[in-house]
Every structure is written in structure tokens, then in C-alpha cells.
Structures
1.
Amino acid sequence: MAGREQAGAARPQASQLVGIPGVGKAVADKLAKLGLRSNEDLALHLPLRFEDETFITPVAAAPHGVSVQCEVTVLSSEVAFRPRRQLVAKARDQAGDLLVLRFLNFYPSQQKLLQAGAHLRVFGEIRNGFFGAEMVHPRCQRIEESEALPQTLTPVYPTTAGVGQATLRRLIERALKLADLSETLPEALLTQHKLAPFAESVHLLHQPPPADFGESIDRVQQKAWQRVRFDELLAQQISLRRSYVRRREHTSVRLPATGQLTNALLSSLPFQLTGAQQRVVAEISSDLAQAHPMQRLLQGDVGSGKTVVAALAMLQAVENGFQAALMAPTEILAEQHYLKLKDWLPPLGVQVAWLTGSLKKKEKEAMLSAVADGSAQVVVGTHALIEESVSFDKLGLAVVDEQHRFGVRQRLALRQKMQDAGTAVHQLMMSATPIPRTLAMSFYADLDVSVIDELPPGRTPIRTRLVAAAKRDQVVGRVHDACKAGRQAYWVCPLIEESETLADLQTAIDTHATLSAELPDIRVGLVHGRMKPDEKSATMEAFGRNEIQLLVSTTVIEVGVDVPNATLMVIEHAERFGLSQLHQLRGRVGRGAAESECILLYAGPLSEMARARLKVIYENTDGFEIARQDLQLRGPGEFIGARQSGLPMLKYADLEDPVLIEAARSAAEMLLKEYPAHAERHLQRWLAGAEELLKA
Ligand code: ADP
Ligand code: MG
């Protein structure tokens, strides 16, 4: 809901490159796909690596397994048809050693290039072929007798099909002469962060001086890379910071704490808030008292107690005569919240309404009118809350649980709903997927973040076991024992696709049938996403009352389910799950005082990645640590996927460097305050097209 989801497709920006010799509309379109529309874009399109074409290696002396450059004269070439159609040329270098050049796919132009008598520089790996030394698909360049060797390393650029290296090199070389690479940062900043000059850095990254060894290129370019990474992060920070500031310019109602209702709730709870809960409650409470809308992300591991924090925030709105809404992505989750709030709030004289798609027409009408006339002060539901028919009397606060699981359209609708409410509504977003620190510092820099970093006391740690699917019988035995001892268990079947499909459903149904047969003296239930909502909640309630002992489910129980007597969880095909999903699922047990266990059944053979991920979940229980390692294993793409749509990805900076991110953040603040024109130019350079997407 951070605003940028309203962005549709990038505003198509005309390419300034059309008309350069060799760049027609077709090439320009392909370049645009790479984000290259101007000389400035080209100058910032940095090489992936270099090839050293500054010297010639004799064929006889070429080390194997390494790309080398040889200079040869073609003796003969022919198209052979066995074992398949291919172009084979025989050539000789100056020392007279034979080199075969082989092309399994080739263009007529290559055939022409390889005519007998042609002088070529060829670049590739030499291996032993049928006729001796050969190169497969070498890069070939026709040369004049005794043509000078390049003085610099040859850059290899990221590209897509259709734009060759030679074209890119030519365009970029040209762009480097024409692009505006003037300094966007004030002197003070350069000195403070010991940054290399921009233009010089860019040139060095495209055209480093010849180096003797691979590593020394890295050393030569180190400061230049640092500069580019800093600049890229800085652009991101400026843009996020700016949208944060702009949003804070909106006014909203002040909802200062009176303590009237919140204190009453606190004294009615059977527990004390943890220190971490108290801290985040205070942060939220002080945001609500401001005259601009809260934009806060509340992060807390599964079971850390976010619901009560949300309840306290909502009560603060109610104390001020406003309504509060709590929206959850699934019916089960919404209902869990509803059941809690229905316990907590009506005794304080606060009316709670419940809105989901599955309500009967009459019930729904009653709810809608209670919401519209303000008699329902707290409203809980699924995205049914943002349907057109829902109109609030005085909405002051919207809480969104697991907000990243809502689709873009739903988030937009919520925004609209809040705009309809008149002044800007305060927003609290909650997430049980911990966002690693560097990510929070970069991609989430436009939100205020509160973290519950402590679990309520009295939880016993969960034991995690990895068990091969071949030993499934033993696991069924464990389930039996646990249920016979009065405990309950979950059995989770995997999702095969992104969202629940019929195949997943069938898996769950089959598993339910199998387990029911294997465990005749255990009451086995089934819950999945395609069930009717009232069937689903009837099953969940039966599980809550221990009328069902073993609950087979698809991943619909992922979040929010709270049955302390459930102490065993079996996850089938754990290797197919994401790490955060496994962590969330595992958080469904270990909610009571009894020791809990999570059994991850896996089917071999495991890929290296699957093995690494299972190891992480096996060795760690802290959600933040798991998220950090997940980020390392997979890169930021999937985390950010949650925010996505238009968010500019970082091309060069990585998220391993909190110090650099922090530096960029403070620089962004400084620029926006003291050098707004510099900030503007800097954004223009880095986010020319994408900035449009970030408007709040
Ligand atoms: P989550 O952050 O995963 O949404 P919940 O809000 O569902 O966690 O809380 C998990 C359980 O812990 C609930 O049963 C809740 O009532 C309980 N709980 C919350 N805060 C505390 C606390 N400070 N002490 C003891 N139990 C708590
Ligand atoms: Mg929750």
C-alpha cells in the first residue's frame, strides 16, 4: 500500500538513440528493453566482465580451459553434414600450427568471413577435437595484415538477443564521448564519503587499462564501482525519501491516546505485554496522535503477538470517536482476528463487525449498515472490506495484516477507500515475514518500521527434524503417539503452483483419505482453500475444540492459526516450500507450554539449493536470521516481489553492504534538504523513466 502500486506500466519514453548510424526503430526498441534510451543510459550500462584481446597466443602454447586470442589465416572451409550440418574451417597460425574453427549454427555472413585466405583474430577456448586443436563458436574478426592490437580490455555487456556485443560496444564507446557525465554531487559529499569522481569512474569501468592478471582489474576498478553503487543507492534513497516526505504532507485526523479503552483492554488480558510489544505500541500510539497519516510497517515473527498490538491501535482510534478496520488476506486469518477481537472488545463496549464474501445477504446488509452508521466501531474482514458497497462512517485507521499477500488491485482499492474517507487515514501494515535489515533500509525506506523482536515468555522451543520421505511410516507413528497423548497435529501438503490448484486440492484430499485409513482411532480433518468458508471455519473450530486431532491441510493454515494444544507439525515435500513459508508454518506449533516438534519430510534427491535451504530452517528458529540467509541464497528479487510493480531494481549495488546503504541514506536526506537541484539531477540520471512510477 506504499503508494507506488498505483503505477501501471512504465510511461513509454521515446528513445533518443534512433537515427544514430545503425540504429533504426527495431534496434532502438531492443535497446529500450535493456533500459537504454539515451547516451546517458548507455554510459551507465556497465560491462559484466572483460576479455583480454591485447595479445595473441600461439595455438601451440594456448592453455586449455581458458579463452585465448589467436591470429590465423583460413586454409579452407566447408559446410559438413555429418553428424549434423555445420561450418568447419581449417586455419593456421603464424607458427604454422593448425586450428579448426567449428560452428554448429551459422549465418551466411560467417561463411563469407571464413573464406580461404582470410586473416582472422579468433577468440575462444581451445580444446582437442578430431583434427587436433579446435575452437567451437569462436568470436571472429577479420583483420588487415599486421593490424594493431587493442590497447584496452574488451568489455562484455549484458544484452538480450538481437543486440550484439559489437553494436553495444560501438554505441557505448560513442555515448561515452557524448553523454553528460558531469558531477551530480556537491563537493562536500564527495569528500565526506571519499567518493571517486563520477565521469572518471564510468570511463574506468568501461575501459580499464590493460591488466596482467584478472584480479588486478577488480583492484583498479574498486573505487569506481564503489562510486557507481553509491550513486545508484543514493538515487533509490532520494526517491523513496521524497515520497515519504510528500506523503507526510497530507493531513489526517489526530488520534491521541486517552487510555480510556486501551487501558481497559490491557487490564482485562490474561498476560502482560512484552517489552517489545510495549515499545511498538508506543511508536504507533505517537504516530496516531500526529496530524499526518501514519505509514508504519509492523514486523514481528510468527507468534510474537501482533494482534493485540493492532487491537490497541484500533482502540486508540475508537477512543477518539473514529472507526478502525482490520483487513486480512484470507478468510481463516480474518476469522482468527475476529474471534480474538470479539472476545476482547465487546466487554469494553466496543462493537465489532465482521465482513467477508461468504456472509448471507441479510447478515451482510446488517453489517454494512452498522459500518455505515458508525455503530460498528471496529470492522474485521477480508478484502470484502474494500468492496464498493462498504462505506464507513468515520474511518480513522486501517490495519492490514500480511499486506504483501494482497494483490495490487486490492491494495489500490483500499487506497481509494481511504481517500473516500476524506482526510488521509492512518495505516498500519503488519507482516510476519521479517525483512532483513539491509532490505528494510533500502527498499522499504519510505515506511516507518516497528519490530517486535521478542516472543512472549513461556514458549518452549520447537524441535525441527528432517526426515526422508521413505520413513513416512515412522512419522505417522509419531502423529499417532502425539494424538493418543492428548495432543494435536497438523499435516501440511505442499502447493504445487503459486496458488492453490485442483491438483493441490487432490493431493490434500488423497492425503486425508490415506491418513484416515492409517489412523483409524484418530479423528482426522481436512481444510483447504476451495472449501466453502463456513465449512472451513467449522473445521477450524472443531480443531480448536480438539474434536479433530489431526488436521490435514494445504498451506491455507500458513498464518494466523492459533491452537496451543497442537504440538506436532508434519510438512510433506518440505523441499518445495519457501523458507519463510516453512518458518511461518512451523510457527503454528510451539504456542503452548508443551514441547513441540516440526517434522520436515523431504523427497530426495535434493538439489544443492534445496539442501541449503532445509539446512537453514533446521539450524535456525529466529525469523530474521532465516530471512537474512534466505536473502543471501535467493537474492532480493522474491522479497521485493511483494512490493514490486515499478520499484526500480538495483543493477549494481547489492544488499550486502549496510554501511554503504546507510551512507546513501544520510546523503539523500542531506541532498534533499540542502541541494534539491542536485538531488533532482541525480534522480534524472539514474531513474529517468522509473521515477514516474514512484509518485506517492
Ligand atoms: P502473531 O504475531 O503471529 O499474529 P498473535 O497475535 O496471534 O501472533 O499472538 C500469538 C499468541 O500469543 C496469541 O494467543 C496471543 O494471545 C498470545 N500473546 C500475545 N502477546 C502475548 C504476551 N505478551 N504474553 C503472552 N501471550 C501473548
Ligand atoms: Mg497474526
2.
Amino acid sequence: MNIILLGPPGAGKGTQAQRLVERHGMRQLSTGDMLRAAVKAGTPVGLQAKAVMERGELVSDAIVSALIGEELDTMGPAAGAIFDGYPRTAAQAEALDGILAARGRKLGHVIELDVDEDALVARITGRFTCATCGKGYHDSFEQPRAPGVCDKCGGTEFKRRPDDNEETVRTRLAEYRAKTAPILPIYEARGIVTRVNGMAEMDHVTAAIERILAKELIP
Ligand code: AP5
């Protein structure tokens, strides 16, 4: 099964993708995570992407589509893929069709996380992750059970993203509205889009996604 989680910055794509990975053995393909890893490693892609990401603009279509193809090639044919933050433009949507077809894969669902934009700035600016395992938390909505200790791996170091400040978030939202939201009709025309209320509690969002995927999920 191959699915796209679509929604603006802070909609909960990463949060829900992590849950599907943990519960159903799917693989999360987050172009944001791949780009951040490239920036950290100082690769040529990372050097090109760093300033663009800090401004909240989109990295080139060719770079992100190449990253997705490379990542899919590391997966067994039976492993389900969750595209998180990709595609983000019409060119990327077209590229994904080719990437999947070349690997004998088919897109099953596009799940749109429907959110109230006003809430997103608070969500994003309060977000932090475990520096060791990457588990996501939030100052108000999801604190570690023991203060300062990661629930998943016991790590005690946490980090925040450099692009999670209000000014950059506003640019990221504008990019979403201008370039990403317009790709929805491509998938609506194929009848594979389901809208989920992304403002509901995280567990309710997960349950709604699991209902959509019920027939294909590994329990
Ligand atoms: P990327 O890393 O993809 O960031 P994004 O799309 O802006 O998405 P976020 O990670 O900010 O949000 P999310 O929806 O995953 O929300 P999360 O689950 O963390 O991209 C970063 C940059 O990389 C881009 O700006 C661009 O420069 C570049 N890039 C990446 N992909 C690209 C591409 N394809 N093309 C070109 N450039 C690309 O949730 C947010 C917070 O809210 C968390 O703290 C969470 O705990 C909380 N939360 C989640 N759900 C709920 C809920 N239901 N209720 C309450 N709180 C919730």
C-alpha cells in the first residue's frame, strides 16, 4: 500500500506517519527529514537546501523527487510507503506517478488532514523532538511522560527545528496554499482522496486514518 498524507505545515503528517510506522510496519518517506539529514551531513543536496528551508520556501522538484526514488529503492516490494510532505507541487505529483509506475507500485489513498490554519503556528512553534530517536512532542499537547526523558528511547536531549519560528511558518503556509493545495484536484479526479479532521485529538485522527486504510493494514 502506498499513501500520501497531505496537509499544511503542522497538520500532523509526521505525527500520524510515525504512528502508522510503529503500529503497522509501514515506512515513512518524509522529504523534510531526508533534507534535514542532508543538511546535517553537509552533502551537496544539503548545502543547496539549507538556506531555502530556513526561509520556508520549497527545495527544487528534481532534488526531492530523486530523494524519494532512492529511498523507495531501499524498500522491499511488500513494504507500504507513507509519503509525508511529498508531493508538494504539480511537477512532484507527476514525478511520483512515474516513480511508482517504474517500481510496480500504485497509489492507494491520499489522506488530507484538514486543519484550521490559525492553530498551526502554535502547534509548530511548540514542537520539539527527541535528539536520539526523533520522537515528536509538544510543549502543550504531548509532553514526555517523565519530564525531560523520551518515552520511546529514554534519551534526555531534545531539539527544535530552525524553521519552526513564526515568520518562517507564515512563509511555509503561503507556499502550501500557492503550490501544494492546488494538487489535490489531481487526486480527487482519481477518487482516492479522503479528508480527515486534523483538529481532532491525535488518537482520533489516527483512528480515522486506520478506518480508511482498514482493508490493507497489517494489524
Ligand atoms: P517538512 O519537514 O515536510 O515540514 P512541513 O510540511 O512544514 O510539515 P511539518 O513537519 O512542519 O508538520 P507536520 O504536518 O508533519 O506536523 P507534525 O506531525 O510535526 O518540510 C520542511 C521544509 O523542507 C519545507 O519548508 C521545504 O523547505 C523542504 N521540503 C520538504 N519536502 C519538500 C518537498 N517535497 N518539496 C520541496 N521542498 C520540501 O505536528 C506538528 C505539531 O503539532 C507536533 O508538535 C504535534 O505534536 C502536534 N500535533 C499533531 N497533531 C495534533 C493534533 N491532532 N492535536 C494537537 N496537536 C497535534
